[in-house]
Amino acid sequence: MNVRIALIGAGRMGATLAHHLAFSLEMADFVAIADPNPENATGLAQKLGVAAVYSDYQEMLARSDLDAVVIVTPTNTHVEVIQAAAAAGKHIFTEKPLALTLAGCDEAIAAVEAAGVKMQVGFMRHFDPAYMAAKQKIDEGAIGRPVMFKSTGRDPWRTSLEYARRENSGGLIADMGAHDFDLARWLMGDEVVRVYSEGECLVFPELKEVGDIDNAVVNLKFANEAVGNVDLSRNAIYGYDIRTEIIGSEGSLMVGGLQQTPVLLLKPNNVSHDTIPGFMARFATAYAAELRAFVTAVAEDRPVAVDGRDARAVTAIGVAATRSLDEGRPVWLSEIG
Amino acid sequence: MNVRIALIGAGRMGATLAHHLAFSLEMADFVAIADPNPENATGLAQKLGVAAVYSDYQEMLARSDLDAVVIVTPTNTHVEVIQAAAAAGKHIFTEKPLALTLAGCDEAIAAVEAAGVKMQVGFMRHFDPAYMAAKQKIDEGAIGRPVMFKSTGRDPWRTSLEYARRENSGGLIADMGAHDFDLARWLMGDEVVRVYSEGECLVFPELKEVGDIDNAVVNLKFANEAVGNVDLSRNAIYGYDIRTEIIGSEGSLMVGGLQQTPVLLLKPNNVSHDTIPGFMARFATAYAAELRAFVTAVAEDRPVAVDGRDARAVTAIGVAATRSLDEGRPVWLSEIG
Amino acid sequence: MNVRIALIGAGRMGATLAHHLAFSLEMADFVAIADPNPENATGLAQKLGVAAVYSDYQEMLARSDLDAVVIVTPTNTHVEVIQAAAAAGKHIFTEKPLALTLAGCDEAIAAVEAAGVKMQVGFMRHFDPAYMAAKQKIDEGAIGRPVMFKSTGRDPWRTSLEYARRENSGGLIADMGAHDFDLARWLMGDEVVRVYSEGECLVFPELKEVGDIDNAVVNLKFANEAVGNVDLSRNAIYGYDIRTEIIGSEGSLMVGGLQQTPVLLLKPNNVSHDTIPGFMARFATAYAAELRAFVTAVAEDRPVAVDGRDARAVTAIGVAATRSLDEGRPVWLSEIG
Amino acid sequence: MNVRIALIGAGRMGATLAHHLAFSLEMADFVAIADPNPENATGLAQKLGVAAVYSDYQEMLARSDLDAVVIVTPTNTHVEVIQAAAAAGKHIFTEKPLALTLAGCDEAIAAVEAAGVKMQVGFMRHFDPAYMAAKQKIDEGAIGRPVMFKSTGRDPWRTSLEYARRENSGGLIADMGAHDFDLARWLMGDEVVRVYSEGECLVFPELKEVGDIDNAVVNLKFANEAVGNVDLSRNAIYGYDIRTEIIGSEGSLMVGGLQQTPVLLLKPNNVSHDTIPGFMARFATAYAAELRAFVTAVAEDRPVAVDGRDARAVTAIGVAATRSLDEGRPVWLSEIG
Q1: Model confidence at A1: pLDDT above 70
Q2: Which of D206, D207, D231, D335 has the most B C-beta neighbours within 10 Å, making it the best mutation to test the interface with B?
């Protein structure tokens, strides 16, 4: 039996996920799209052959012939949409972050658990072939005990000023660092217990005016005493740069690279290649694979790969690391609940 | 208006192209599958939601509501299927090679031209992002005048003995070299005029019994006097290895690489990574893109990217290079028509 | 006129520098070796054709026909040997670190300045072709304003327990981090003003017994507000791993790599290469070049490339970062003078 | 007992080898330099501390206190100098090629064998760490049976027109190909039995006027039936490009790379690094190591690594491959003696 699925939020990222829902998932029937902007929803529905369009997602949730929803709305609406979807008995795939606050995460988790539905959060790196291979090698013991975690997350462009505000994105550390904090927990198989951040607005002074920074380094301490560091930058103007290292007692792993296509141009005393333009290009297969995993989990009634409690833990690290930046001191995760 | 398209041949490669027809091409309606083995066709049709199945492709060609066909039948049937499809007024996408003989190529081209339909041949590297980027750089003049062409085509496994026979595949040089000979013409923007081959059966003695070899090097001379070399091997047991270099008067290009996923495992005095498992993994996006290009050419009535005359020229190089191997002398393309 | 030069300390590193003094420096006459162990000194002198050997370096310093000394004694003797050499009017090249304490650094600097001799400290990365190229590109403005500094320093082996003690090496952060802190100042063209360290003893429990750790991450804050991170590990069992990144407003630089010789071994689904065995292999040319630079500076009476004040600043960062580890808080450089 | 050694020929390459003789070889006493141009010899002798200088090498050979000579004279003088040195009972290190003709090779070999002296020929790649590692892996069986040999030899500049003449260098194929033909024999552990060349003058028309070409590909057939290809170019304007592959039945090897220093510059959509400027930079350690090996072989009375018969075999391949180019047909090595 196929999973009847609908999309809530037909913006840029919504359109990407919608494409995968429409074309890559044999086990899903993509039946409806909801978006307050009817042009977004209608255009996408026509292009992808989706039958129904709604400007009010609540109306769509009322349909009994709907099994699951994919939520790609602005972050500050995640909790209320999740609550509504859970109350309607729909399984939920939501884009990350679950919420910017721990209170929001807790409300979402409570709603989902009360309704007995599944919720997967869109930390898509769990479905990237490279990160999956790394995770498998760690689990096989190829590097022994992981003792240091290093991760780089750098964007080639400045985000919009509106998005950069703390209330919208959580700021550089919570926003861009979320994927790295997620990797830290997943790959190290451990919890972060203390963080310390250094960060500044160095390249885009306009970010400072909205309270954000553009470069940061965050030290991590894990429960099992391993250490780590995440660096984040908005000015990797060379290209999208996502790399992770796990140093183990018996070997190490490096995940990621800088090159998009395998072409070298050789000119006098210069060999050059391209870079990765952005996260869509880097993680194209992962976006399809995370939806496939969600649909499969729903269809076969199995646990999802990244659930609400995972997402809450990621938010907690981001909140703590941001507080560290604000207060100029190491912050224990236990301080923030 | 969408292009109504059908598949002829539902084997392994047919299934791959069928998947792209079903899921990746908004401008195509995938309406039917023909295969003499009804299980192949039916299974694929059900999986992909294709309405009609035929065991006799001729019957399918009789449908008036069909615009185009994708031919993925055994090579020795290409000409007759193309003739039938052309006679039925259908546009044609055919897997490479067009035919193993120049006579076969000529018959197919004549049928297509008489019927006034389009025919694209499946030299999919024209649609690989890396080779496309290289071609664009050459056309922009980034490397000046191309003066040397080098290409490597190596498979990680031995082909079946049945397929290896000259009458089925054309033998190692014509079969595996076809893509390299195609690249030679396309990237150098020139015609090959003379070839010389060295080759032997060195690793798989059973190939010798069916008249084939497993390793070869083929020197090329171009009309504009540029030189080239293609090396072919069936025992690249490390992985699928496809690389090309174009040396120019003002720079050079290298296309291709050995790594599938960007993961390094670091062990004592050893850094290792994976390899590319096979052509499906390496050229996954190219297979989708070539079909998209064909459907677009049909829908918009524009020329196809790789036509019958291109395919004939590739066959001619393969025939000449194989004759060179047999006769132990350089062979001019002009000798073989 | 050649510089008449002598070596003080004929241990393993002393022997390496001695080889360069004997064979690579046309402008130097290598005239004497002093070492309390007469076997060390005599063996080396015979092998390299050095005329005089001393068990007491003070005696050697009394020679009037000696222009300069190269000090490769245990760190805790650096200050007294420097004071003696300066008092004798000899120019000084000393291995890093200058001293483990700021007081020691100050005494050494005072002695040198009072005597009016030159002193160069052995931060040899300033003379490595890769780091030199990076520095030049930064100075040319190729990456705009440097805003983030990242550096990795990892050894493939555990140091001796005796050396690991704080009183002998300064501990992991001060000892192994010294080169990275030196790079931080040099490449960023700025001073570190605040540090925060996380570190643990995770792989070699015996290190804990002598008060040391084996893995650490150190966040840096610079005077111009740039940020940075240094990671250090004693269990890079794969090989010596020294890499540095400088992220700038208009580009970035990566220095360093993992491969010693350009040889790839390709086996089924596995491409592998070797690693760099240790610092001697990685920085072989730099050790020769730093001595050449010192001899040239003496011969031509020009300033040395890395002087006592540079070395003091590096010690200060190490002391602050170690205090941060001990006290679990960010430490300002201004706190420690 | 040290080997008393002298240099014959103090040009550019002679000066390079002289530097190694003077500074890197503890077992050699560098006692004299001969060069018809007294300025060359005197300048070099003063710089390196060599006691005696001769304008007539015959006079130098008359010294009884001389054990060996290093011959770095123009190729067309090699045979006569070798004959004189052998007649004087001196061991001989000669730059490659031994001679441009087989007759010349035979005369030199006969003189050496008659005199009972040792002769090593300067195919220095045998002493390059990367090629040595590859050879060792092949000998250990890491790649099973070698079945294909591929080698690239490309210079970043056009040679002088005078040198390009057949009578001076042997032309592109014999001259630049010599190192690749040497590698072919050494790494494959086999003899080349047939060659076929394609080549043209495509970039530097002035080379055509002196009878030379600038790009060539040479197919190889080995006695054990393995196949191979060498490509040669004078217009690798990007940098010195020396790479070799050996494809085996159970694995493969790639030797060589394009990068001189491990520095990446990252600019918008572009990652670039430097290239290798020339053979001196690429093979610096090999030049020192080959002389060390020669001196050791003399001192310990052991066979040299690359002798006259090896060098003759390399010349034979070059002669055959050049004849193939001239006559437009495959040429058997047996044809040319």
Answers
A1: no
A2: D231
Is there a domain that residue D301 lies in?
Answer: no
Residue C1 has pLDDT above 70, yes or no: no
Same domain, A176 and A245: yes
Say yes or no for a CB contact (<8 Å) between C258 and B266: yes
State the sign of the Cα–Cα–Cα–Cα dihedral B9, B14, B18, B19: positive
Of D91, D117, D143, the last residue of a domain is: D117
For residue D276, give how far its alpha carbon lies from the nearest alpha carbon of chain A (Å).
Answer: 7
Q: Is D46 a member of any domain?
A: yes
State chain A's mean pLDDT as an integer: 96
Average pLDDT over residues B53-66: 97
* CATH assignment at residue C69: 3.40.50.720
CB–CB of B270 and C238 under 8 A? yes
Taking CA atoms, what residue in D is nearest to C282? D262
Q: Which ipTM did the prediction report?
A: 0.95
User: Are both B130 and B89 inside the same structural domain?
Assistant: no
Contact B194 D199 (CB under 8 A): no
What are the contacts of C201-206 at 24+ separation with CB within 8 A? C202/A145, C202/A147, C202/A225, C202/A226, C202/A249, C202/C235, C203/A145, C203/A147, C203/A249, C203/C234, C203/C235, C204/C158, C204/C234, C204/C235, C206/C161
Environment class of residue D294 by beta-carbon count within 10 Å: exposed (0-12), middle (13-18) or buried (19+)?
Answer: buried
Please count the structural domains in chain C: 2
Contact across the interface for C266 and D254, Cβ inside 8 Å: yes
Residues C75 and C132 in one domain: no
- Beta carbons of A147 and C203 less than 8 Å apart: yes
* pLDDT, tens digit (0-9, with 9 covering 90-100), for B123-132: 999 999 999 9
pLDDT at B257 over 90: yes
Q: Nearest-CA distance from C13 to chain D in Å?
A: 19
What percent of chain D clears pLDDT 70, i.e. is strictly above it?
100
Q: Do B102 and B130 share a domain, yes or no?
A: no
> Does the global pTM surpass 0.80?
yes
